[in-house]
Structures are given as structure tokens and as C-alpha cells.
Amino acid sequence: DxxxxxxxxxxxxxxxxxQTIYNLSMNNSTPGPKDLVADTYGLxxxxxxxxxxxxxxxxxNHTAIFPDTAIxxxxxxxxxxxxxxxAPSIYQANGDELAEIRVDAKSYKDPAIRSEITTLTLMDxxxxxxxxxxxxxxxxxxxxxxxxxxxxxxxxxxxxxxxxWDPQTLEGRQEWLLPFxxxxxxxxxxxxxxxxxxxxxxxxxxxxxxxPGAFVILLKGWSAGEPIKSVEKGTYDILELGVFVSIRSSNxxxxxxxxxxxxxxxxxxxPAALEPNCHTFEIDxxxxxxxxxxxxxxxxxxxxxxxxxxxxxxxxxxxxxxxxVSRPWIILNGxxxxxxxxxxxxxxxxxxxxxxxxxxxxxxxxxxYPKISASKILQVDINHVYQLDTSIDLGENPELLVNPxxxxxxxxxxxNEGNGPDRFDYxxxxxxxxxxxxxxxxxxxxxxxxxxxxxGSEQVFDVLMNIPQQVPAGDYTVVFNTxxxxxxxxxxxxxxxxxDVTTLQVTVNEFYDMQISMDPTVENxxxxxxxxxxxxFVVNITNAGNVPDVPSLDNHTSxxxxxxxxxxETPGMGTLDGWGVxxxxxxxxxxxxxxxxxxxxxxxxxxSFPVDSCVYLEDINEWRLPEMMPYETYTMVAIVSIDPGAQxxxxxxxxxxxxxxxxxxxGGDHDxxxxxxxxxxxxxxxxxxxxxxxxxxEVRTAKQTGASSADVGxxxxxxxxxxxxxxxxxxxxEVILCEYDDDDxxxxxxxxxxxxxxxxxxMRQEIGAIDKPDDSxxxxxxxxxxxxxxxxxGTKNVYVVVDPGNNIVExxxxxxxxxxxxxxxxxxxxxxxxxxxxxxVALPTMIVLLTFAxxxxxxxxxxxxxxxxxxxxxxxxSLKSVLGSEDSD
Length: 889
What we know:
The structure is a single chain. The strands form 13 sheets. Strands 40, 42, 43, 46, 47, 48, 50 and 51 form an eight-stranded mixed beta sheet that branches. Strands 53, 55, 56, 58, 59 and 60 form a six-stranded mixed beta sheet that branches. Strands 1-3-8-5-6 form a five-stranded antiparallel beta sheet, with no helix packed on it. It has seven domains: about 1-125, Sandwich (Immunoglobulin-like); about 130-245, Immunoglobulins (Immunoglobulin-like), CATH 2.60.40; about 255-380, CFA/I fimbrial subunit E, pilin domain (Immunoglobulin-like, Sandwich); about 390-495, Immunoglobulin-like, CATH 2.60.40.10; about 515-690, Immunoglobulin-like (Sandwich); about 695-825, Immunoglobulins (Immunoglobulin-like, Sandwich); about 835-880. Helices cover about 10% and strands about 45% of the residues. The protein is mainly beta. A hairpin with a 5-residue loop joins β37 (about 475-490) and β38 (about 495-510).
């Protein structure tokens, strides 16, 4: 038996593409013992419609059961299985369909033993359409196209084709409710899957000839798979769309103009122009399609706004309508449009600022239809007029009389007389002399500080004019140019940035200026020396004026009052007796060779003077240079001779070069004054400093420490004190002892540069150094030493001399010699001298006697040896005679 499981029904409803399951069971219901009635069965399916599928599966393991699958069952045994039924797909299903599928069980042993069960499966097919629009109303003008965005949705459960009326057919136009000459662009069929949505544009073309008004268009769509069109069942849908047609505004009224912008120049800047402030625009206004009355306006503007004036000028044959606001635009028969020229005159005020001026909108609309209009924006801008004025305040020097090297401040004012802001520039154009030749001057214009000037504003700045140090006297022309930020036509119509030219006439005076200077890389204005020496200072004498000059050379002295120097304004050596200043010219002979040239000594009354040499005018004690051309320089040597007895102080001397025209009070040297202190030290004055530094060695005391006599050959100790009263230390100091019979040899020693005769020097000793005294040692720094005097026969005057030969430069050499007050000598002067004399005589006598004795000994020795020689010779001669006789025998 094949049966439904408990709770299972024989009737199922599904949709296309879905499946359903029937739970079934089969049992061996043959009576009898189970092993005897055991049987094998087969299951088969019949009645499956086209495009349907049905399959059997074991419930236990979900294995498919095929027609040849043998199923063995004992008596009373059963199995569970299920039937799976799948409906056709959404693309195969066309309509509702009932599938009557039978499951047949048959015994293999006895085909008569069989069981059958029938299932009914209904495939429910639904067709549906839904139409929707993003907006249901559209506003269009005549001749335009209304566009609706239509959404089409398949609300059914099968793939479907949806149809729409053909607007090209009479029936279709009626269904669309299309007015005459209207046209629709929309697809006539759309295929969609279930629940699929597609959006299509519906274009409704409105003819130009259509009258304004409201119109309704019906969009109808239905399912092709459902023969019955039913809005209630969803197989048919109608969408109502509204189209509001208005008069065509685009190109209904047209305005044509070649240039909508213009620039004008205010009257104050163009006096020759007829209407410099105004511009007239000519506009062609065209009415298309049909005649109508046009209303003109200038929205956003008022009469005489900001002193601007706006006039709309119509042709004489175009009068106002009785309503007082509109004018007729009548299209003649056979024409499609009518055009009239309308003029708009816009005038700017005289004080207009440069830049954007006035924007005026001219609008023309169809009477009664404000939206049907045309407009043009007319822009009138103000030309930027660049106009600058330059003025220079010369103050108390209107004639500009200047001297070389002078710096003149020129307060300069730039006024913006244009009608717009201007970032101006101010430059030096040129400087020329009286012959028109360009010259170079240092004139500083603070261009970095120049600012942008607003209308009517000004800027004041200082221009520094530095007159060259070397410039001939005469008249010079200085030209300044004032430039605008942008180019602008000048009076001749030439485009240029140049707005103003300022010319100054500068007169350079005849200028006398003598200068004395010292090259610090070559010379030093402070020198250290000692009294009695000569110091040289190399200086440069320059004629810094612009005319020839014959200068003279002076020197001045100073005295110190406390810490201040008081200068003598009268030239000369003042209180410095024994000092002197002379001059020489230093000539450059070769690359590294220089020579000093003596000044020619002459009188001030001489008829002529050397052309290229300095002179010393002996009668008036004046040193004078030859005529010096402008900016010529002489290198001079100032020779300062110092008094040997000068105090060890620091002295300041003044060297001065004086113009032949005198000082500033005489109209000569512009910065020469008699004073020397502080700011009164002029360029023609040079202070040199001579620092006198020298040791001063003095023999303070010299005395024997004991008795003034001793045995000949012994020594007498002498205690000596030597002091350094100078202001620097002394080194390698030699001290000698000299003996003389005379007691007044100090003067002779001084004359001989503090040097004794060599045979008179009996002792020498050297001291390493003696430092300068400090502030507490008012009497100098003193050293003590002992020297031994070797005693000779008789008595002597002994002198102590420090620095013999004056090898050390000292402040004073007159205190280097001191005689010991007591005479030094032997114990018995008379006997010692006599013995010394006898000793001197005895020695030569004994030498003579010994010499004669030696000669006697030599005579006797020689005589004896001569006798021996004669005897030997006699013996030899006798021996020869004997031997000769024997040979003859």
C-alpha cells in the first residue's frame, strides 16, 4: 500500500520555478508469515506535465528512487519516501497549470499486486504591472518637449512582456489623449522579470503652434500574458500625466549687441572730449513668432543713482501704447519677426573712481508675461587715469649751492591726481654737467619705502643726494622721473608709464679742503722713543678741494691739564724747547724703493719757487708744498727731533696743513678751525703722540767697605748702589772700575761717552736687568752690588762707571760716573813704588848679564869641540897614509 504520511495532503499550490514535497510511505500488507510473504517492489511516476519535474527519494538517506530500483519488504514492513515536484521556470510558465502526478508501486513477484496514489500540484501564475512617475506635471513652452521619468515594475511572478499603445496609430493617439500635432516618444513593449523595475523617459513634444493651456496625457500599459486587462487585478495600469503649455519664452524676444561693455574717461581728464563721461549702447530688439507689446525696464537701478544717469532711447516711430508702459512690436505679414534699435545712454559722474563702474540691465518682457523676456547687462567701467605730481622742498637752499662730499636731503612729495590707486615709482634719470655729459652721482631714492597712493593722497619721503667727494666746480642738472604703475597715454597719445619729470639745477661751489691722513697699514700715529732721538711719521697730504691750492705745513703743541689736553692754537713748538719738526717729500722710486727728498730752503720773497718740490721759507719759518691740483696727494715725512733733556712723558703734537685761502672764517678750507679739541679736530689736522720711554741709570753711592789701603795684590771691596730712575727697565748693564792718578777725570770720561781708557779699567761686572720703579719708589729702583778693586803700588782715584760707551739709551747720560771719595792704594805707597821701580830696572839688567854669560859658555863649548874635531881629523889622515903604503907593498 502507498499512502500519504500523517498530516500530508494530496493538493499543493506553488508558483513558477518553485518546488514542493509530498511525504509518502509504502508497506507490505500481504497477510501471512513475514518471511513467506516478503516481496520486492518497484516505484514509478506517471502523469508529469511538460516542463515539470518529479523525483522520488528515500526519506532515510535522501537517495533517489528510480523505476528500476528494487525495494525489498518483509511482511508488515514499510518504508518512508517523498515525492519532490518542481514547477516550470518563470520563463517557461505561461498560465495556471494543474499537474496530476501518480505514484505507482508494483510487486516484482506478482504484477497484480500493486498500489497507486495521485497528487495534485497547482502552479499559480500571476501577471501584474505597476506604472509610476517621478513627477506627474510638467511645465513646457510652445515648441518644447516635456519629459517624464516613468518607472515600470513587473508585479507578477513570471517573466512578462508589457505593452503600450502605439502613438502613431489613430487608436493609439486616442488612448494617449494626444492633441493634434503632438508627438510621443516611448517604447511600445518592455520585458521584465518578476519584481524587476525599469525606468524609461517619456518625451512629449509640444508643437510651437499649440495654444497655452493645461493638457492631460494617459500612459496605459498591460501584461501580454494576461488576456484580460484589469486594473483591479493589476494586469493593467493607467498613469495620468499633466502638461501645462505656456507661451514660448526662449527666442521670443531677442536682443543683439556687439559689445556689452565700455569704458569712459571722466571729464576732468579729457577736456577736449565732447562727452567724455558717457557711452551709448545700440541694441537690436527682435520679437519673434507673433506680434506683441513689449515693456522695457532697467531693474536694480534708480534714477541718478550715485550721480550716474541712464537714458533708454527708442526710435521715433515707436510710440508708447495708451497704457504708458509698453510699446508695440508688430510683425508684418509674411515676416517671422520684427526688429527695432533701442539705445541706452549711460553717463558717469565727473569724480568717478577708476575700476568697475556701473552695470545696467536692460530688460524687455511681453506685456502680461514677465517670464517671456530678454535682457542684456551693460557694463560701463571707468578708465584708470594715471596722473602724478611731484614737488621737492628745497627749504633754505633754493639755489642748491653745494660743496663736494656734502649730503643734501631732498624732501619729495608725490601726489596722486589720478582717479585710481597708483603704486608709483620714483627714480633718478640722469645727472649731467654744464656740457651735457652724464656724470655719476650717488643719489639714494628709498624705492622700497614707496607706497601705493589712493586717489587724492600723497607720500612724502627723503631723497639723499650725496655730492661726490671729487667733483669739479660748476653747474649740474639732476633729473628725476616719476612713473605710474601702468602705462597711460601722455599728451601726445604715446603709451608710457612716465608721469612727471623733475629737474634740479645744482651748483657745486669752488671748494677748498686740505686733508692730512695716515695709512694705518703703513704708519702708526703713536710712537715710543727716548730723549735725543728722532721720530718719523709718514702722512698723506691731499688737496680734497676742487680747485688748485698751495698749502703750508704747521705744527702745534699741547699741554696736559689733568686728563685733558689743551692745544695751542698758534703754530710753533711752544714750551718744547730743543724740539723741532721738519718735513721731507717721500718719493716712490721703484716698486719697493722709496727715497726722501729734502725741501728747498729759500726766502718768501723769492721770485719763483720749485714746481714739484716742497720749500722751507727761512725768513718766515714756514714749510710750504708746491701747487697741488684737485684731489692730488703728496706723501710727506714729518721728522720730529726730541730734546735730549726732554722729560720722560707722553707728548701730543699736532700736524696741520693749511690752505692758501685760510680757514672757514676766511672763505677757505671749509672745515678748518683754530681749535683742536673734540669735534673741532678737522680733517686738515692730525694728532701724533710721542711717548718718551727710557731707563735712567744713576750711580748713587760708591764707597769701600773697609780701609782704603791694602797690600799690593790684595783687593778692596767697594759697595755700589745703582738706581734706575727712568720709566722702563734696563738690561745687560755693564759696570766698570777705572783708576786714574788725577782726581778730576769725570769730565773726560763723560766726553768719551762714559768710557775709560782701556789701560785704566781694572774691573768689569755685568748686571742682568734693573726694572723700572713702581709708584711707591719715588727715588727709583735701587740695586746694590760689590766689586773688588785690585790694589797696586801707590794711591789712585777710582771711578765707578755704569753703561760705559752709552750702549743703553737713557734719559740722561750725565749721572753714570761717580768717583769714590777716598783714594785707594797700597799700605806703604813710597816703598811699594820704589820696589816696583827697582823691580822694573833689575829684571832687564839680570837678563843682559845672563845673556853674556850664555855667550861665554857657548864660546868655550865651541872651542873645545873644535879642538876635538881637529884631533880626529889628524888621526884619520895618518891612518890613510899607513894604509896607502901597505897597498903599494
